[in-house]
Automatic annotation (TrEMBL):
The lineage of its organism: Bacteria, Pseudomonadati, Pseudomonadota, Gammaproteobacteria, Oceanospirillales. Residues 12-131 form the Response regulatory domain. This is Response regulator receiver domain-containing protein. It comes from Marinobacterium mangrovicola. It holds the Pfam family Response_reg. GO terms for biological process: phosphorelay signal transduction system.
Length: 532
């Protein structure tokens, strides 16, 4: 059976590569494949704003290690800032196929990695796979994008077992169930799927569910098996280290993280975790190396922060406890230099002053300087009171000193957490969606209305605009009618849950009346006139 022919004419594609020749070559490859709506640019910090403000369907991101801002940094920061939308597809392109770079890129979870140079046939194969996958999973991923996890769970049921995306859909479903607090249900479904398919990503998610259910021995056994079969599955090392720590086995946790950072040394969060566990287990040389590496890596990273300076200063404090007088003086100077460097490099971080005062007070306590202890404690309290969100000083003191920190009460799941809203951006991209709709570019209109909801999940105008688009699509597309009507009902349900003004309430009521009509009986063309 011949593979389906993919139409790229309605896809909004961004090509990012700092090499002019390579960018030009890939540009014409994409044109040859039928991509019409295509923007090409060099790698720079501006790319992040483009991704944030525009609803791209596919992003091809090139990496060159010698660039001032590399593709790996853009990918990492896009994931860190939440700019990687579930419905968008990412292809990471690099001529550097080294293990450390590839594993670092995998941490940010692009859809595909493509080694440069590549042929137009290779590019087409990846794009075809990506578009087919995104098309199948679109109802699921769009529901995730707007924060409706219950709808995403329901949408996964519509994907048949025979579909190539079925396993991924089931993992998405399990991820949503875990985030909704239904971990036992997720675990049961994942266990059935894993023992049938033996997929490493399913196994990794199952191990996370087992950890949340405090089935630590089962999680440990599963993770050890995954690592034996997939020695470069770094996320399994990360989770196994947490299991060891939960079991009180700090030595094993440290050694697991050491192995992970040797295989994948470019990730700052993993290096910082190694430093923390090494400090708690009194392996100060290992902690020192991890924090120094974090400082170097942080020079051009979204994870750049004063934390590794502070933690390394604490290592120097701990080293002083067993040092002779001469070495103590050297360590004290290094301690002060690290805190001064932190304050110099991060002058606008108000919390840094609190933490510096806590550490200085800790050192004064080690040296028996009670007056200095009191002075620094008062200084920390004064700085802390000036913060918009004051810290728990006792807990912050434990974190900085490398001591074991009590477990906090369970935090709200993403579905329960307060949603950050940007009404101004929501209105802006909603207007762009209307512009595309009026121009007959319905796919792009759908993307922009979805992006408006991402900026403000409580923006009813965009919700109703999407409902209208899907109702028109259900009317005009018999083959996908049932799927489209489910989307209509979903957006109507979300709209009804919001406080509405009189105009929007009138439009919603009119919409509900139209929804009661047989789909074939709806008037042809735009329904906008009826919904005004």
């Amino acid at each position: 059976m011949a593979p389906p022919k993919i139409d790229y004419s309605d896809k909004n594609v961004l090509l990012v590569d700092s090499s002019g020749n390579m960018r030009s070559t890939i540009f014409y490859m994409l044109r040859e494949l039928g991509v019409q709506n295509l923007r090409a640019t060099t790698v720079s910090e501006r790319v992040l704003e483009m991704i944030r403000e525009e609803a791209f369907d596919i992003i091809l991101l090139g990496h060159n290690s010698s660039d001032m801002v590399s593709g790996a940094q853009i990918l990492e920061e896009a994931r860190y800032r939440g700019y990687i939308r579930p419905t968008a597809g990412w292809i990471f392109m690099t001529s550097d196929a080294s293990q450390e770079l590839v594993l670092h890129a995998i941490d940010s979870r692009p859809d595909f990695l493509l080694t440069k140079p590549f042929s137009v046939e290779e590019l087409k194969q990846r794009l075809d796979q990506l578009v087919l996958r995104k098309r199948t999973l679109f109802p699921v991923e769009q529901a995730i994008e707007i924060g409706d996890l219950e709808a995403a769970v329901d949408a996964c049921r519509d994907i048949p077992r025979s579909d190539p995306c079925y396993e991924q859909a089931m993992r998405l479903r399990a991820r949503c169930l875990i985030d909704l607090g239904r971990t036992q249900q997720a675990c049961e479904e994942l266990e059935r799927q894993y023992w049938k398919d033996d997929d490493k990503d399913t196994g990794l998610l199952l191990a996370e569910a087992l950890c949340r259910l405090e089935r630590l021995s089962d999680a440990e056994e599963l993770l050890n098996g995954l690592i034996e079969s997939h020695p470069l599955l770094i996320a399994a090392f990360d989770l196994l280290a947490k299991v060891h720590e939960s079991n009180g086995m700090l030595h094993d946790a440290r050694e697991t993280l050491k192995e992970a950072t040797q295989k994948a040394p470019l990730g700052i969060p993993r290096q910082m975790e190694l430093g923390r566990v090494a400090t708690q287990s009194k392996a100060l040389e290992t902690a020192e190396g991890a924090y120094k590496r974090s400082i170097v890596l942080g020079r051009r990273s979204c994870f750049r922060s004063p934390e590794p300076f502070l933690r390394l200063a604490n290592v120097r404090r701990l080293e002083m406890q067993g040092a002779d007088a001469r070495r103590s003086i050297e360590l004290r100077n290094e301690f002060d230099t690290l805190l001064n460097n932190a304050e110099y490099n991060f002058p606008k971080d108000p919390a840094l002053k609190v933490k510096s005062a806590l550490l200085r007070g800790k050192l004064a306590g080690d040296l028996g300087e009670e007056d200095e202890v009191n002075r620094f404690q008062k200084e920390a309290q004064r700085y802390n009171q000036a913060l918009d969100n004051p810290m728990d000083l006792a807990r912050a003191d434990l974190v900085l000193s490398g001591d074991k920190v009590p477990v906090l009460e369970p935090q709200p799941t993403p579905a329960q957490s307060a949603v950050r809203r940007d009404a101004e951006m929501a209105a802006k991209v909603n207007r762009l969606g209307i512009k595309h709709y009026m121009a007959g570019k319905l796919s792009q209109a759908t993307r922009y209305f979805g992006l408006a909801i991402e900026y403000d999940p409580g923006y009813p105008v965009a919700l109703l605009n999407l409902a209208q688009l899907y109702l028109e699509s259900a009317r005009d597309n018999v083959n996908r009618r049932e799927e489209r009507l489910k989307m209509v009902d979903r957006y109507l349900r979300l709209t009804q849950q919001l406080p509405l003004d009189a105009t929007t309430t009138e439009r919603l009521n009119r919409f509900k009346e139209l929804r009661q009509l047989p789909v074939d009986g709806l008037p042809a063309g735009s329904l906008a006139v009826l919904l005004r």
